[in-house]
Each structure stands twice: as C-alpha cells, then as structure tokens.
Amino acid sequence: MPTSLEVPQLVVHLPARDEAEAARLTQLAQLIEAAEPLPDLRDLAPAVRGLFPPPAYEVGCGGAHIWLHRHGESQRLAFIS
User: Fold this and answer.
1) What is the DSSP letter of 53?
2) 8: closest CA among 68, 64, 67, 76?
3) How many other CB atoms are found less than 10 A from the CB of residue 25?
4) What is the pLDDT at residue 22?
5) DSSP string, 6-50
6) What tens digit of pLDDT does each residue of 5-56 get?
7) Which of 30, 12, 10 minimizes the C-alpha distance to 70?
8) First to last CA, the chain
9) Is 77 helix (H, G, I), strand (E, B) or coil?
10) Nearest Cα to Cα of residue 22 among 42, 51, 45, 2
11) Per-residue confidence band for 4, with pLDDT thresholds at 50, 70 and 90
12) Dist. CA 7–CA 73, nearest whole Å
C-alpha cells in the first residue's frame, strides 16, 4: 500500500470492443482525471464496478491498483495504479 497520497493513473490495454465500451472507457478516464489523490485505491473500486458491472466485466483491486477484465478474457482491459 502506498505510504503517501498518489493521483490515480489509468492505462487502457485493449481497444474498445464497441461504442458502449468506448463510452464506458471515456467515463472511466474522466473519473480518474477528477479523482483526488488517494492513499488507497480500493475506495475508487465501487465507482469502477458501477461503470463496468458484472457479469460482463470483472474488477479487482488492492490498495495500490485496480484491474479490469472482460468476463472470460485473460488479458486486462485496463489497469489503474
């Protein structure tokens, strides 16, 4: 877990599958840009899950990161650190 406040950073690993996913990724980028520095990214995970709900997406997190997968795919769609 980070010992200081960090501004979250988003890395998108895959192109959007369709227009709806592209819109979600845009909303995610806006959410990250608007986020205040956080000591623990788990506080941001519920908002990410709201944008990328199950069962179509899997969102996991730790104190220093959030990862996002499309359901059934092994490659990450996006990573927030």
Assistant:
1) -
2) 64
3) 21
4) 98
5) B---EEE-S--SSHHHHHHHHHHHHHHHHPPPBS-GGGTHHHHHH
6) 778 999 999 999 999 999 999 999 999 999 988 889 999 999 999 999 999 9
7) 12
8) 11
9) strand
10) 51
11) low
12) 28
